[in-house]
Structure formats: structure tokens, C-alpha cells
Design brief:
Elements: E1 3-6, E2 12-15, E3 18-21, H1 28-34, H2 46-49, E4 58-64, E5 73-78, E6 84-89, E7 92-98, E8 104-107, E9 113-119, H3 122-133, E10 171-176, E11 179-191, E12 194-205, E13 213-218, E14 221-226, E15 231-238, E16 255-263, E17 266-275, E18 280-283, E19 286-287, E20 290-291, E21 294-297, E22 300-301, E23 304-309, H4 321-333, E24 338-341, H5 350-359, E25 362-366, H6 380-395, E26 401-405, H7 410-416, H8 419-423, H9 430-444, E27 450-451, E28 471-473, H10 476-479, E29 493-496, H11 505-511, H12 522-526, H13 533-542, H14 552-575, E30 583-586, H15 609-617, E31 621-628, E32 631-638, E33 644-654, E34 659-669, E35 673-678, E36 690-696, E37 703-704, E38 712-715, E39 730-735, E40 738-743, E41 747-752, E42 762-763, E43 768-770, E44 774-781, H16 788-793, E45 795-796
Parallel strand pairs: 23-24, 23-30, 24-25, 25-26, 26-27, 28-29, 37-44
Antiparallel strand pairs: 1-10, 2-3, 2-4, 4-9, 5-8, 5-10, 6-7, 6-9, 11-12, 12-15, 13-14, 13-16, 16-17, 18-21, 19-20, 21-22, 31-32, 32-35, 33-34, 33-36, 36-38, 39-40, 40-44, 41-43, 41-45, 42-44
Helix pairs in contact: 4-5, 6-9, 14-15
Length: about 800
């Protein structure tokens, strides 16, 4: 039977002739940090102080012990090496590697002694490849497109430049005889209501003549097949298999698959995975509005409620199974049902996809290409195909994985960013996205769809980022336009859009200890990586709010409010246009360090107001006021599987709290549809002092405010800067685990910044608007000494212009 022994301990990292203990899996930066050689690059300006690390060569060393006798072959297996390295044993080369996204196996039968992995600087390798294949355009000066490494190691407009090296995934020794399972390709389908698992198997042999048998077991059923040469196919049918559904549409039953390779009656190797039975289709058919882009799971057409995912740490080896599960649980709790793994990162670990399988989170997986022209010559072309083949097979058992995507923004970049002229006919990646990758997916994983890029209109007949065709990235908003412009178009699928805000207050304090905080203080500017990021924040704020001169706390609060408002403007508009628009993917869910960015969850894992706003925006049922032509309508978005019926109360109000008009509307919205009702002209607010409120479930009285779950909508016809808000008056009471606020006036965008009560304190909701007489109870975790005065000091809301 194959025996696997971890080889993660006993490693040392050599620096200036001295060995330091090394943690494997890990990287050079984390080992130097643990040894006290470098400062924490996340704190202050520490990133600049460690830039030298990425330009050095580094060597990991340990002894490869002699193994027990009785096996015919011994393999040394690296699940991931970052990135260009030479592996030697007893001073003799075992091999040279150059791809972070692949695993490697070396025959070390009968060998023992000093084992070394020498990493070349990624910069040196990238510059050597650039010298061979020629220069290619990209938006950043860093040479990330010349080697197969996590692109955002070289920095991004939300990430630090920390160019890593190291043994970043597990390493082990495998000992085996006769044969082993070299590759198992699980094709999981549903045929006429029957779940089918077809395992296409490749074996490696030490004895060609040995007769081999495959036995597969799934859900109490089994099947056997002979191995012919080095391959075999075994198929198991599960007639009573329960379907796997995305969250909100049904359950997520998972079935254990066990495949055993036998020689006679003796088991040689075992492969185990969990699978789920579901079908997935991407509907890109043409219609009266252009070219669609709708995911269809088990025959159900979906509006995808998505978030973009970046590596959760710039040092990916620090992301544990528990951390993946926590972050993805946060996504699911916010109503998310799709996570896009962005192309400037990595193929994530099994822990990521396991959690998505269990939580019912659909996964859109980019191949790792982002925002650059990628050469198609060797040595890159062979590496691209090899990594694609390995990772397609590695991940295809996961039911959560529903889409392969060729790249991020490269087809768009070729057309709009001046690449075509600069390239002058040189290769730039098109052969990957429209050739190599679709061919690999069609050959190895025909059970799920492939799209060439994001954005992509489906063919060169349309502009790559045409909102009427395929996927669309909306970045004129934020970069140049106000977020009100989201309402100017209805894309078929919005795969990227977003708005920046700083991280939570406690995160800022941890990252910038001792600094006098200001929007433009040295540390704040260093932890803002977007081009003119603070300028865009200020201009975006000035369109809606009076700028708080010299008041960092007020600036911090208002920029977080503005982020939530911006994303809400887009999602409410696009959801109200289902099924023409079939999905939104917010940029972005998470951060990889403490930074001002588009994230809903900051680099310390704290939830920004945007996170809580997503809970409302992505709820199954959402009320939203929208303008259709010259008319104001109330759109009721029902993504649940049941009809939405009941009464909606409309109130036209003044900011002083006077009710100026009322009406009741009967709601009768079918499952998975959107309905619109014209707002009576007499209830439309007139001028800056009036607004309109809609509440589902009947006429509300004083008491607990409408929940975050999408059942209240409010329409203010002018920007906040023009609204004569009253001085907010409210009472605050505290109890163990909660803060209750009772409003005596209109209190708009009330926010408890719970981290101001303590770094580990968390609130269960974000922005909430209270009408006079309403109250809200905010759940608070981790607050050991409740105090009403402290709670009041941590509460922020809209105030009269100063």
C-alpha cells in the first residue's frame, strides 16, 4: 500500500551564511519575520524596508532520511514551490522548476542525505524571460507576466509589493510498489435523474506485467474495472442521489467517493473525494437585449449574487483551513451565492473549495492571468498548459466550481489600453484564452462551461466590454464618474464594480501605530495603493456630502457610508432589471493586508459597513425605488422560491418627522421574478426636505426599525449635502451583548463602530436609518464592560451641515 510521510519539519533557511528555522509550508518573508530579521511589512512603512527580500536568492535545507525497506519506489513530492528553484540531493540535481501553480514529483528511490531547494529571485527570472521573448505591456512596472507566479505578489492597486519565495504548500515522501494512482479525473454528471460518477484513471507502474483492478464506491454502490496498460475507466451510478444546489435554492448533499487500485486482492493506493450531483449550463444565447450570460444550475436560472475573491493574505501559506472557512462563512452570511477567484491570484487550496461545497457557494475560477499582455513563447507556453491540466483535474470534483474563466481584463486591455499598437504583432495571450485553455477544459472537464475572459462579449464582433453582450466591468464609475451613473445602463452580467473606503478604525490603529491620523498622513497614503485613490475618494465624497475638513473620524465614517451607498446604487438598479441582468460580482470581498480598498471585509478580518449592506442588497427579497423614464417606481425583487405577497406601506415624510402622505399597495410577486409598481404622483417627495419610505408587511408603527433584510426602501431626491438634516436626538441603552438606540428624530445612516469599543468587539449590523420613535437593537460580541457613554461615543450618523 502506498505510504505517505509528511516532510514539513526540520527545514532551515540560510541567510548570509546563517541558518534560521523555516516553517514549511511557508515563505521567506514569514521565516525572516519570525526570526526577527525583518519588520512586519504590514505595519507603517515596513513594506519598503523589506523590498530587498524579493531580489535575493534563498535556500531551504534539511536531511532526507533513509526510508524503510520493502517498497520498490520512493518519490519526493512538492505540492507547491514559489517559484523558480533548483532541487538537489547530496549536491546532485533532482530537477529545476519554474511554476508556483504546479506540483512536482522526483524519484529518490534508495537516496538519502542533504536536501536543498535553492530559489532564484523571481525578478531575475522574469527579467531573463523578458530579455528572451521581448517586452509586453501592463499597467504596472513590475514584470509579473513573465513567469507563472501569483501576479499580486508584485503589488496591485490594493496590495503591497512583497515578492515571495519558498515551499508554499506541503511536501512529503511517498513510498509504493507495483503501481500507484497517478491521476484520477472524476466526471460527475446527472443523466435522466441518475447521478453518475465516471472515474478516468491513469496509473504509474514499476511492474508492467502486473494485473491491476479499479474498484469505486459511492453511496453504498460499487463498480470494478480492469486497468489496461496505464489507464482505466470505472463508472458508478447512484439512482437516488440528492441534487446539490447553491445556497438559497436547496441543500448541499455531498457523497464520498472512494477509488482503490488493486493488484489481485492487495490494495495498492486509494483516492478519496467528495462530490455533489448537479448540472450547470451557461446560457449565452442572443435575445432582444444583446447576448446573455446566465448561469443555469439544475435547470434553474440564477441571478448570481457574487463577490470577487483575492488571496486572503499576501503570504498565502498563512491562510489556514479555519481562516478560509471563516471568510467564506462571512460571505454566505451576507447573502452571497457566488465567489469569483480572481486571475491575479492563485488556484486556491482544497480547503477553499471544500468550504464552498459545504456552504453552497458557487465558484467562478479564473485561470491566473490578469491585466497584462502575456507572452506565448517558451518557456511560458508549456508551463501554462501543464498547470491548466493539473489544476482542472485537481478541482473538477467540487460541485461548487461552475465556471472556468480564461483571464481578467486582458481581452479588454488588448482592445482599449493601447496594447495592439505597442505589440506590433507579438503574442499577448489570445492563444491561451481562445485556444489552449478552452481545449484543455473541453478535453478534461466537459461537465462545466468555459468563458474566454472577464469582461468578454463572446466574440470580437462586439467590444470586449460591451454591456449588452456577456460580462462587463464597470470602472468608469469610481475612476471618472459618480456612482449615480450605474443607473445609466443595464449590463447582462456585471463581473466587477466597486467603490473604495478605508478599513475599520481599529485596523488603521494597528497598522499605523503612533501616527497622527489624517486622510493624507504618510501611513494612510502608503496604505492606499490605487492611483490617485484619495483624490477619487474625495471627489466621490464631495458629490454627496459636505467634506469634513480636518476631522479624520468624520472623514472615515463618511467614506465608509459612501462606499455602501455606491454599491447599493448599482446592485439595486441591476437586480431590479432581472432577467436582463443576470448577476453582480462586487469588487471585492476581502483584503490581503490593512489597506484602503474596495473590500467589504478589511485586512484584519473586520467587517466594513459595506459588508452589512450586502446582507440587505443580496437578501432573497429586496424593495428598491427606481426611476423608469420620468416615473418613480417601487421594484420588489423576489429571488426566493415562494411568492411574495402582502401589503407595502408608503409614507411621504419631512426630515422633521412629519408624515405628509400615505398609501398602501398590495404586493403579489411570483417566485424568482421582479415586479414594479408606479409610485402615486402625490407621494413623490418635493425638494430637499422630503423623502419617501416603503415598508413591506403593512403599516409600521413606532418600535423596532425595519430589518436589514431588504424589506424597507427609502428615496431621498437630493444628495445628502443638500438635505437640511435635524440635529439627531436619540437615547442609548446597553445590556450584555447589545446596544439599543431609540430615535427621537430622523437618524440616518446610524453606525456603531464596534471596534472603537475594543479591537475584538464586533456588531451584528451596519448602517440603519431610524424614523422618529423607532429603535434598533444591535448585537455586540466581545464587549466585556458595557457602558452607555462608550457606546454613544462609538455611534455615528448624518448630521446638519456645519
Amino acid at each position: 500500500m502506498l505510504e505517505a510521510s509528511p516532510l514539513d519539519d526540520g527545514w532551515h533557511l540560510r541567510h548570509e551564511g546563517k541558518p534560521f528555522p523555516a516553517v514549511v509550508p511557508g515563505c521567506v518573508h514569514t521565516d525572516l519575520l519570525a526570526a526577527g530579521v525583518i519588520p512586519d511589512p504590514f505595519i507603517g512603512l515596513g513594506e519598503k524596508e523589506v523590498a530587498w527580500v524579493g531580489r535575493r536568492e534563498w535556500t531551504y535545507e534539511r536531511e532526507l532520511p533513509a526510508g524503510p525497506s520493502g517498497h520498490e519506489q520512493t518519490d519526493l513530492v512538492f505540492d507547491g514551490l514559489d517559484t523558480v528553484a533548483e532541487i538537489t540531493l547530496n549536491g546532485q540535481p533532482l530537477g529545476r522548476v519554474r511554476n508556483m501553480h504546479r506540483s512536482y514529483r522526483f524519484d529518490v528511490t534508495g537516496l538519502e542525505g542533504p536536501l536543498a531547494v535553492r530559489f532564484v529571485s523571481a525578478y531575475a527570472e522574469a527579467e531573463a524571460v523578458r530579455g528572451k521573448v521581448g517586452d509586453r505591456p501592463s499597467p504596472y512596472a513590475e514584470p509579473y507576466q513573465y513567469l507563472r507566479k501569483m501576479a499580486c505578489s508584485f503589488g496591485w492597486d490594493w496590495g503591497p509589493t512583497l515578492v515571495t519565495a519558498g515551499i508554499w504548500r506541503p511536501v512529503r515522501v511517498e513510498r509504493w510498489s507495483t503501481a500507484r494512482l497517478a491521476r484520477v479525473r472524476p466526471l460527475v454528471t446527472v443523466e435522466a435523474g441518475v447521478g453518475v460518477v465516471e472515474l478516468r484513471v491513469e496509473v504509474e507502474r514499476t511492474r508492467v506485467e502486473a494485473g491491476l483492478t479499479l474498484e469505486a464506491r459511492v453511496a453504498g454502490r460499487s463498480a470494478r474495472a480492469e486497468v489496461t496498460g496505464t489507464s482505466g475507466v470505472v463508472r458508478v451510478e447512484v439512482p437516488d442521489a440528492e441534487p446539490w444546489w447553491p445556497r438559497g435554492y436547496g441543500g448541499q448533499p455531498l457523497y464520498e467517493v472512494e477509488l482503490t487500485l488493486h493488484h489481485g486482492s492487495a490494495p495498492l493506493d486509494v483516492w478519496r473525494r467528495r462530490v455533489g450531483f448537479r448540472s450547470v449550463v451557461l446560457d449565452t444565447s442572443a435575445d432582444a437585449h444583446g447576448t446573455g450570460f446566465t448561469l443555469v444550475v439544475n435547470g434553474e436560472r440564477l441571478f448570481a449574487r457574487g463577490v470577487n475573491w483575492i488571496p486572503d493574505d499576501v503570504f498565502p501559506s498563512r491562510v489556514t483551513r479555519e481562516r478560509y472557512r471563516k471568510r467564506l462563512r462571512q460571505a454566505a452570511d451576507a447573502g452571497v451565492d457566488l465567489v469569483r477567484v480572481w486571475g491575479g491570484g492563485i488556484y486556491e487550496s482544497e480547503d477553499f473549495y471544500d468550504a464552498c461545497d459545504e456552504l453552497g457557494l458557487l465558484v467562478w475560477q479564473d485561470f491566473p492571468f490578469a491585466c497584462a499582455a502575456y507572452p506565448e513563447e517558451q518557456p511560458l507556453r508549456g508551463e501554462v498548459e501543464a498547470e491548466a491540466r493539473e489544476n482542472v483535474v485537481r478541482l473538477m470534483s467540487h460541485p461548487s466550481l461552475v465556471l472556468w474563466n480564461g483571464n481578467n481584463e486582458n481581452l479588454w486591455g488588448f482592445r482599449d489600453w493601447g496594447w495592439e499598437e505597442r505589440l506590433g504583432g507579438d503574442s499577448w495571450g489570445e492563444g491561451y484564452y481562445l485556444g489552449v485553455l478552452p481545449r484543455v477544459v473541453a478535453e478534461l472537464d466537459p461537465t462545466r462551461p468555459y468563458t474566454a475572459g472577464s469582461p468578454w462579449s463572446g466574440s470580437w464582433e462586439h467590444h470586449p466590454n460591451d454591456p449588452a453582450h456577456g460580462t462587463h466591468h464597470s470602472w468608469d464609475v469610481w475612476n471618472r464618474q459618480d456612482y449615480a451613473e450605474y443607473r445609466s445602463e443595464v449590463p447582462r452580467f456585471v463581473a466587477e464594480f466597486g467603490w473604495q473606503a478605508p478599513p475599520a478604525h481599529a485596523t488603521v490603529l494597528r497598522a499605523l501605530p503612533g501616527e497622527k491620523l489624517a486622510a493624507d498622513s504618510p501611513g494612510m497614503l502608503h496604505h492606499q495603493k490605487a492611483e490617485d485613490g484619495n483624490g477619487k475618494l474625495e471627489r466621490g465624497l464631495a458629490r454627496h456630502f459636505a467634506l469634513p475638513e480636518g476631522d479624520f473620524d468624520r472623514w472615515h465614517y463618511l467614506t465608509q457610508v459612501n462606499q455602501a451607498r455606491a454599491v447599493a446604487t448599482g446592485i439595486e438598479h441591476w437586480r431590479s432589471h432581472w432577467p436582463v441582468c443576470a448577476g453582480t460580482i462586487v469588487w471585492q470581498l476581502n483584503d490581503c493586508w490593512p489597506v484602503t480598498s474596495w473590500a467589504a471585509i478589511d485586512g484584519d478580518g473586520r467587517e466594513k459597513p459595506l459588508y452589512h449592506e450586502l446582507r440587505r442588497l443580496y437578501a432573497d427579497r429586496l424593495l428598491t425605488f427606481q426611476v423608469r423614464g420620468s416615473e418613480l417606481v417601487l421594484a420588489a425583487v423576489n429571488q426566493s422560491g415562494e411568492p411574495w405577497t402582502g401589503t407595502v406601506s408608503l409614507r411621504r415624510m419631512s426630515v422633521e418627522g412629519e408624515v405628509l402622505g400615505t398609501a398602501s399597495l398590495e404586493l403579489a410577486v411570483g417566485a424568482r421574478v421582479v415586479d414594479e409598481v408606479r409610485v402615486p404622483a402625490a407621494l413623490e417627495p418635493a425638494g430637499a426636505k422630503e423623502f419617501l419610505v416603503a415598508d413591506a408587511g403593512g403599516a409600521p408603527g413606532s418600535g423596532e426599525a425595519a430589518s436589514e433584510e431588504g424589506r424597507r426602501a427609502a428615496h431621498f431626491p437630493v444628495p445628502d449635502r443638500d438635505i437640511p438634516y435635524p440635529q439627531p436626538r436619540f437615547e442609548v441603552t446597553v445590556a450584555p451583548g447589545s446596544v439599543t438606540v431609540t430615535a427621537h428624530t430622523l437618524v440616518r445612516d446610524l453606525l456603531l463602530q464596534a471596534d472603537r469599543l475594543g479591537p475584538g468587539v464586533r456588531a451584528d449590523r451596519g448602517l440603519v436609518t431610524l424614523l422618529p420613535g423607532e429603535r434598533v437593537t444591535i448585537g455586540v460580541e466581545g464587549w466585556e464592560t458595557p457602558d452607555a457613554a462608550a457606546a454613544r461615543a462609538a455611534l455615528y450618523c448624518q448630521e446638519p451641515a456645519r
